[in-house]
Amino acid sequence: MTQAQTLLGASVAELMTQAYEHAYEKGWTDGLPIIPPTPDALERFVAASGRKADDLIGILPPRKGRATVEVIAVNAIMAGCKAEYMPVIIAALEGMTDPTYPLEFMQVTTNPMTPFLLVNGPVRQKIDINYGTGCLGPGWRANSTIGRSIRLCMINIGGALPGIYSKVSLGSPLRYSYICGENEEENPWTPFHVDRGFSRDQSTVTVFKASNFCNISGGEGVGPDEILRHIATNMPPMYGGGDGALLLLGINHAQSLSDAGLTKRDIQERLFHYARVPASHFAESFATTERNAGRGDADSVWRARCPEEIYLAVAGGPGPQDVYIGAGMPQTRLIRGL
To answer: Count of CB atoms within 10 A of residue 12's CB?
Structure first.
């Protein structure tokens, strides 16, 4: 991928089109246009990483591709990133290549699961990662391109080409880019990364194994139990979904729940008990599978094995909106160099 390709054209627009067509023919893209990774840009991106070009960050399955800083930089450039995003991308890939993170399964399964990135700390302001209104996109360069660079690395380094190694049956728009920052400034509790042992002045990225997404509307002007019961109705049990659930609480509901005296632990425990469905609503084979996995009993099927597997963060802008993501197995890494 790092070999130079000479293109000739009458204008910048023509050259950009040729670069896109060439990359698409080679299978290097997610289907969207790319920025050509010139030698000068590559040098700037490697320098911004604070590491050497040949430093190995991890091995990406299923092709066992070597994710060196230089190759990561190539994908970041193609995705439209700025050079200063490199430390975030590298930290995310460090989390994804942890032996306990199911990256190979994610790369080859028929399920459209994908990494979800939650960014915390001062880096959000430094590189302008959106954590407020519209934080899940579209329209924010850092969010859009950092997430996209991860997907391009999964394709070009890991080899997860659609229909070849990647066998996802239907796919998902979430597999283009799936990332936001946490709205720490309007979070009435401690930020997510502080709960995981980091300090407020440290910057981190947490990578979740994620699948479905559900925006939850309503619940304004009611008590805490009504808010949480409403949220729980959108957290159904899922086959093989016992890795956990991530709830991005909107700032309205976060403040209402905090004003009512609820801690994060209180919310986790209540959602754990509310997010259950009678076992009779499911096929017996499904109910049996979930019971055997510790996510059910004779009467009901549960969304998670325990309250701790319901992860909470605060994000977004004003309005009675929350987002539920079927997500778990978080890996949090320190972002170095920013």
So the answer is: 8
Report the side by side order of strands in the sheet with 114-120.
Answer: 179-181, 114-120, 204-217, 321-334, 245-249, 310-314
- CB of 203 within 8 A of CB of 217? no
pTM (2 decimals)? 0.93
Report which of residues 223 and 240 the model is more confident about: 223
Q: Which of 289, 179, 174 is nearest to 242 (CA)?
A: 289
| Model confidence pLDDT, tens digit, residues 123-134 | 999 999 999 999
Whether 211 contacts 246, CB under 8 Å: no
Cα–Cα separations (whole angstroms), residue 76 to 34, 112, 230, 247, 289: 10, 22, 40, 28, 41
SS3 per-residue string spanning the chain: CCCCCCCCCCCHHHHHHHHHHHHHHHCCCCCCCCCCCCHHHHHHHHHHHCCCCCCEEEEECCCCEEEEHHHHHHHHHHHCCCHHHHHHHHHHHHHHCCCCCCHHHHHHCCCCCEEEEEEECCHHHHCCCCCCCCCCCCCCHHHHHHHHHHHHHHHHCCCCCECCCECCCCCCHHHCCCEEECCHHHCCCCCHHHHCCCCCCCCEEEEEEEEEEEEEECCCCCCHHHHHHHHHCCCCCCCCCCCCEEEEECHHHHHHHHHCCCCHHHHHHHHHHHCEEEHHHCCHHHHHHHHHCCCECCCEEECCCCHHHEEEEECCCCCCEEEEEEEEEEEEEECCCC
Q: Report how far apart, in Å, the C-alpha atoms of 127 and of each of 83, 87, 130, 165, 277 are.
A: 10, 11, 9, 34, 42
Mean pLDDT of 63-80: 97
User: How many CA atoms are closer than 13 Å to the CA of 277, on its beta-carbon side?
Assistant: 16
Task: Give the model confidence (pLDDT) of 254-280 as tens digits.
Answer: 999 999 999 999 999 999 999 988 889
pLDDT at 245 over 50: yes
Q: Which residues pair with 166 in a beta bridge?
A: 162
Task: Answer whether 80's CB lies under 8 Å from 70's CB.
Answer: no
